[in-house]
Amino acid sequence: MTLCAESLAKIDREIAKYPADQKQSAVMSALRIAQQEKGWLASDTIQFVADYLGMPRIAAYEVATFYNMYDTQQRGKHKLVICTNLPCRVTWQQDVGEYLKKKLEINYGETTEDGKFTLIEGECMGACGDAPVMIVNNHRMCSFMTPEKIDQLLAELE
Amino acid sequence: MSEKVILNTLDHPEPGTLANYERVGGYQALKKILAENMSSEAIIAEVKTSGLRGRGGAGFPTGLKWSFLPRHFAGDKYIVCNSDEGEPGTYKDRDILRYNPHSVIEGMIIAGYTLGAQRGYNYIHGEIWDRYEHFEHALDEARAAGYLGQQILGSSFSFELHAHHGFGAYICGEETALLESLEGKKGQPRFKPPFPASFGLYGRPTVINNTETFANIPYIVRNGGQKFLELGKPNNGGTKIFSVTGQVNKPGNFEIPLGTPFPALLEMAGGMRDGRTMKACIPGGSSVPVLPADIMMTCTMDYDSLAKAGSMLGAGSVIILDDTVCMVRALERLSYFYFEESCGQCTPCREGSGWLYRVVHRILQGQGRHEDLELLIDVSKNISGRTICALGDAAATPVLSFIKHYRHEFEHHIEHKRPIDGCH
Description:
The complex is a heterodimer of chains A (158) and B (424). Chain A is α+β, with helices and mostly antiparallel strands and 158 residues long. Chain A has 7 helices and 5 strands. Chain A has helices at residues 5-15, 27-38, 43-53, 57-66, 86-91, 96-104, 147-156, and strands at residues 78-83, 110-111, 117-122, 134-136, 140-142. In chain A, strands 2-3-1-4-5 form a 5-stranded mixed beta sheet, with helices on one face. In chain A, β2 and β3 (117-122) form a beta hairpin. Chain A is elongated. The two termini of chain A are 27 Å apart. The model of chain A has no long low-confidence stretch (mean pLDDT 96). Chain B is α/β, with parallel strands linked by helices. In chain B, β8 (278-282) and β9 form a beta hairpin. In chain B, α6 (101-115) crosses α9 (211-223) and α14 runs antiparallel to α15. Chain B is globular, with a radius of gyration of 22 Å. In chain B, 58% of the residues are buried. The mean pLDDT of chain B is 96. Chains A and B meet through α2, α4 and α5 of A and β3, β5, β11 and α14 of B.
């Protein structure tokens, strides 16, 4: 198990941000970069990151399981997280959560049969004014979602 | 139109660029302190005069916080910015990072100069990747222009600043949890004391302020603390960005003077949607007490007025609920949030937040018991003040304030297994 040269270069860039004796500070970024390459964080991926940073494997595992954007289980090719917290939910003019569930024929926390989409009911993303808000694959925030924009998004995600 | 301190870059197609920031007076404060060789004492005095209070929620006076850092400590010190915004209702720092990232950078450089720190980090929460990238780009711009790095603008002062990307944990907005997270650990809050001023990042003296707090610093240094104070009202200096959400016509961020009457803010947000009546308002983010509309309409938007009314300014995250909202359902969603986000370190919060959620959930499901309201109050009071950090209190406060003001809705739900008429 290793990561590609591009991922390692990205991790090295993160390590350089911290004092030389504090490489562990880069673990959050390193796990994010590893997850982006591999799709999820298997135990051997977490171990590799820990060894690369010279930190105890258990400490890296603690980080991977504490923060909720890391996936320590395999999921669909595209992870869709929709915020349903109170400010978002009352700002919604249409129930886009129900729309997504019907369209994908799954409930929150489930993956479509073809393995393409995982739908997750998320917590506050600090973007309540843009409600309804969704995050696609951890890196792309979609604002002011409507059924039409959801259709467009799903069609675009291969 | 009142003067803007932070969102003053918006009349430009590319508001967040260095060129645009310089156009509105950006980096003049930094040039001034370097040219005049301004003393730390003089800068801290201006910040104290300004009445600037922490914009992340606690409202602690910034000048006082800065004065706690040991002056003659020989080793490394750190400046840390808390952009880990993620309490339901908050989204102001996201806009500051988009529209005026350089005000945060300049504020942090000035803090570094004042407090003798040479390195800083801005902790940006995980959900806003594009803002993180944007901030990194702004850092590159500042470095290329000589505002950041070795011997800034030819002076003997050096300061390096980096962005750190979080990955989904509300608790990291608590300052010591954030420091743990920056060190590459689980974000679990530390016992205090020692406070970060003496034992912060990597065990070194550290000043940690909110994004909006740092963004106000250049204005204060450039124009003097007195001018900033006069933008607001005594003990509540300056402007504040209020994030309005809920059933209004135009949710958004509004930078207005502290002390502005709430009805004026409601009007800026376009008034109530569909011409409905306002029922309630949570004025500072989901962890502050809810206020009924009649009380809210008499408040001005500042720390003292909202405290007097029995709530808090918090981070200025104004959640407006109309008369169709079932308060049991509203509380159930908030209670789930605190249960989900409890870090699990302290038993009263870990167990209590789940207990609160389960009881509110069963009332909502029509399985409430007559003794449940007293039980909720009892559990809440046994969480409050018995945990390392304020998340326990944040879980208890909505429960206590919702029952205080909307007890009849909960009783109706328990009695009739459905919301009061007209609510859902």
